[in-house]
């Protein structure tokens, strides 16, 4: 299965030290490095964040076109893996068009598996035309165009512990986590800290 991601200079360390080092061999990697740091801080909703998120929507369109008739996986680089996930992704999406990580109050655009088809391509193209602030809001406004569902808790985010940004507190990592996405975390250094913590607790 193809896996797509993209990153800017601020997130290159996350890409190299977490995402790439844990990515299972079962994936065919398609990574896009953006050399222009359009969001100077690399932090959620800071200046330029909307521009970076629009690049993600452009990638969704390209990934769908390149994978037509097959499944593809997209995930952000603040993701680490704890085992193989392709078989589970295929089982979980089933006959649906797209299955996204459960972001508690929304469908997460930072981790999803998609069946590349004319239906999903139409949705991604509509997202480009009607882009609204960032990729996740835009995705949730267009999911009605296809059959969609949420992925299981094996695809973990801190938001399932507390629906607010992580501020350094300790928490219990659920059993059988295969992927951890460091969203609900503001700032690259904080993302590294929660990823280290989750890895330690997942294998302790």
TrEMBL record:
<feature type="domain" description="Nucleotide-diphospho-sugar transferase">
    <location>
        <begin position="43"/>
        <end position="194"/>
    </location>
</feature>
<dbReference type="Pfam" id="PF03407">
    <property type="entry name" value="Nucleotid_trans"/>
</dbReference>
<dbReference type="InterPro" id="IPR029044">
    <property type="entry name" value="Nucleotide-diphossugar_trans"/>
</dbReference>
<keyword id="KW-0808">Transferase</keyword>
<protein>
    <submittedName>
        <fullName>Nucleotide-diphospho-sugar transferase</fullName>
    </submittedName>
</protein>
<dbReference type="InterPro" id="IPR005069">
    <property type="entry name" value="Nucl-diP-sugar_transferase"/>
</dbReference>
<dbReference type="GO" id="GO:0016740">
    <property type="term" value="F:transferase activity"/>
</dbReference>
């Amino acid at each position: 299965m193809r896996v797509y991601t993209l990153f800017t200079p601020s997130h290159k360390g996350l890409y190299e030290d977490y995402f790439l080092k844990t990515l299972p061999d079962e994936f065919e990697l398609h990574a896009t490095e953006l050399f222009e740091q359009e969001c100077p801080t690399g932090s959620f909703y800071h200046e330029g964040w909307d521009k970076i998120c629009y690049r993600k929507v452009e990638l969704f369109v390209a990934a769908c076109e390149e994978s037509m008739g097959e499944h593809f996986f997209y995930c952000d680089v603040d993701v680490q893996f704890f085992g193989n996930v392709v078989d589970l992704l295929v089982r979980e999406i089933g006959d649906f068009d797209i299955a996204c990580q459960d972001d508690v109050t929304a469908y997460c655009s930072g981790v999803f598996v998609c069946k590349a088809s004319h239906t999903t391509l139409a949705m991604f193209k509509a997202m480009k035309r009607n882009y609204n602030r960032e990729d996740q809001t835009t995705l949730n406004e267009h999911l009605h165009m296809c059959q969609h569902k949420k992925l299981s808790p094996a695809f973990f985010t801190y938001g399932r512990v507390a629906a607010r940004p992580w501020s350094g507190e300790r928490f219990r990592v659920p059993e059988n986590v295969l992927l951890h996405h460091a969203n609900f975390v503001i700032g690259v250094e904080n993302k590294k800290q929660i990823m280290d913590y989750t890895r330690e607790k997942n294998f302790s």
